[in-house]
Specification:
It is a single chain. This protein is about 35% helix and about 20% strand. The chain is an alpha/beta fold. Strands 1, 2, 3, 4, 5, 6, 14, 15, 16, 17, 18 and 19 form a twelve-stranded mixed β-sheet that branches. The protein has a four-stranded mixed β-sheet with strand order 20-22-23-21. Strands 7-12-13 form a three-stranded antiparallel β-sheet. Helix 17 links the parallel strand 18 and strand 19. It is globular and about 70 Å long.
């Protein structure tokens, strides 16, 4: 059996000019990066402005488990299946972060015969967007420290600098550092730290900006510090935003690639969903809606994180209205939620399936709270038994939702035809009968009320506990005029609660909020629960141990 990278390396790719031509994009509107990837020009947005939007399909999932769910694989497979049944669909995904690629997760380009290619390029440097974001972020940091070094006219309190450096690599040693050592010429000593690039506010800004003007305005609005009088200091006062925009102008353009079956895919932006808002860029999504009759996009991790933020942050800012949600699960993952150990998941276990399917139930109910139709996609394994499959089918029927058994990993588009047809039928039905998408909360609510709404409605918590630090931070954020922003809750992806060990549908728990941070450039307030880290570390056996490159430049071990 071929590995993911072997399948990708054997792909019969079309030149990127052909993929663009199939979408009606001329050569003047693409900026090729080699033969098989390209950026799309600014002019293309204005050319398509009057074109009617297609239908937006969100792919999300249950809470992730070691068994794997295959959300990206199903997203890619659905796009391939749409092509198989003759539909004009454009895929819009996030860019992988180098940290997880070399760390625990591996690549993020799908799997099996449902992948985006060139897989190695996408997972490793792609078109340089991550590097541009890292450079812009660290330019601002350098100019903050230089301002302090050169006399500190703004009176910045170096104990209250809110903006950290970043790096697109897992490195726990950089979480907390001291800079400016070595004497007067080397700067003012202070505590600092690194975030991973995909958890940075610059990444969120790039993904939420609608154009270059909006990008610059958002950069100017970044809260970087407080002065000695307790007043906020913004990036516009540092004077770095013009140079930051120059670094980001090309990164703002969406990237065009293809699936294994030569379907078009826009891959752009990559914020983490357990820390940041977990969606690809608004620009890529909106462009995909203009280029296709259907846009298929995904939100990170389970629907309690990625989909909630997709609806309450991205759709709110982008004026987007999803037509359908595809909720991905596996029978293995449902059994894991029912208490089965990872090594025993291949064995039939109806008791565990009946117990663990409560996790799927909660996610279905949560998506219905946004008034969007839901289709369950079961990413099928050969170990799934007829009895287990029938149980899941009956369960979904009782909940009033369609279910499709997907085999896109093994069969590509052919393995997702049933899902594609059900998605199209559902969208047609809802279009004829009206759809009423609505975010979960109004931004006019207090920050604490917004947190409590998400905690109770989506996580199913009994309530929320705020630490003294969180209370102080929220009061300060509201006090400087940022009460009316949506909240971006940083929480473990492994559980509906803030405790990663509580599987299924946890009961009798409260969410503990330990801190809050204003991301005024991005336009939301980050709320920290549990021990979520903004700079991951590498595992004991990182994926980097298996990645190699031979003398001819052929990469192996990437998955």
């Amino acid at each position: 059996m071929l590995s993911d990278i072997e399948i990708a390396q054997n792909a019969q790719m079309k030149k990127i000019t052909e993929i663009a031509a199939d979408l009606g994009i001329g050569e003047s509107d693409i900026e090729p990066y080699g033969h098989y990837k390209a950026k799309l020009s600014e002019n293309l947005f204005s050319k398509l402005a009057c074109k009617k939007d297609g239908k937006l399909i969100l792919v999300t999932a249950i809470n992730p488990t070691p068994a794997g769910e295959g959300k990206t694989t199903v997203s890619v497979g659905l796009a391939e299946a749409m092509g198989t049944i003759g539909k004009n669909a454009v895929l819009a995904l996030r860019e992988p972060s180098l940290g997880p690629v070399f760390g625990m997760k591996g690549g993020a380009a799908g799997g099996g015969y449902a992948q985006v290619v060139p897989m190695e390029d996408i997972n490793l440097h792609f078109t340089g967007d991550m590097h541009a974001i890292t450079a812009a972020n660290n330019l601002l940091c350098a100019m903050i420290d230089n301002h302090i070094q050169q006399g500190n006219e703004l009176g910045i309190d170096q104990r209250r600098i809110m903006f950290k450096r970043c790096l697109d690599m897992n490195d726990r040693a950089l979480r907390n550092i001291v800079i400016g050592l070595g004497g007067k010429a080397n700067g003012v000593p202070r505590e600092d730290g690194f975030n991973i690039t995909v958890a940075s506010e610059i990444m969120a800004i790039l993904c939420l900006a609608t154009d270059i003007s909006d990008l610059k305005e958002r950069l100017e609005n970044i809260l970087v510090a407080y002065n000695y009088s307790g007043e906020p200091v913004f990036a516009r006062q540092i004077g770095a935003c013009g140079a930051m925009t120059a670094l980001l102008k090309d990164a703002l353009k969406p990237n065009l690639v293809q699936t294994l079956e030569n379907n078009p895919a826009l891959i752009h932006g990559g914020p983490f969903a357990n820390i940041a808002h977990g969606c690809n860029s608004i620009r890529a999504t909106k462009l995909a809606l203009k280029l296709g009759d259907y846009c298929i996009t995904e939100a990170g991790f389970g629907s309690d994180l990625g989909a909630e933020k997709f609806f309450d942050i991205k759709c709110r800012f982008g004026g987007l209205s999803p037509a359908c949600v595809v909720l991905v699960a596996t029978i293995k993952a449902l059994k894991y939620n029912g208490g089965v150990l990872k090594n025993d998941l291949a064995k039939e276990n109806m008791w565990a399936l009946e117990k663990g399917i409560i996790n799927l139930k909660v996610h279905i109910e949560n998506m219905h709270k946004y008034h969007v139709p839901v289709i369950v996609a079961i990413n099928r394994f050969h170990t799934d038994t007829d009895e287990e499959i029938e149980f899941v089918r009956n369960f979904c029927t009782e909940m009033g939702v369609e279910v499709s058994m997907c085999e896109v990993f093994a069969k590509g588009g052919e393995g997702g035809v049933d899902l594609a047809e059900k998605v199209c039928e559902t969208i047609k039905f809802c279009s004829e009968n009206g759809s009423g998408f609505k975010p979960l909360y109004d931004t006019e609510m207090s920050i604490k009320d917004k947190i409590e709404t998400v905690a109770k409605e989506i996580y199913r918590a009994d309530g929320v506990v705020f630490t003294a630090q969180a209370e102080k931070a929220i009061k300060e954020i509201e006090g400087i005029g940022f009460r009316d922003l949506p909240v971006c809750i940083a929480k473990t992806q492994y559980s509906l609660s803030d405790n990663p060990t509580l599987l299924g549908k946890p009961k009798n728990f409260k969410i503990t909020i330990r801190d809050a941070k204003l991301s005024s450039g991005a336009g939301f307030v980050v709320i920290y629960t549990g021990d979520i880290l903004t700079m991951p570390g590498l595992p004991k056996a990182p994926a980097a141990l298996n990645i190699d490159c031979d003398n001819e430049g052929n990469i192996s071990g990437l998955f």
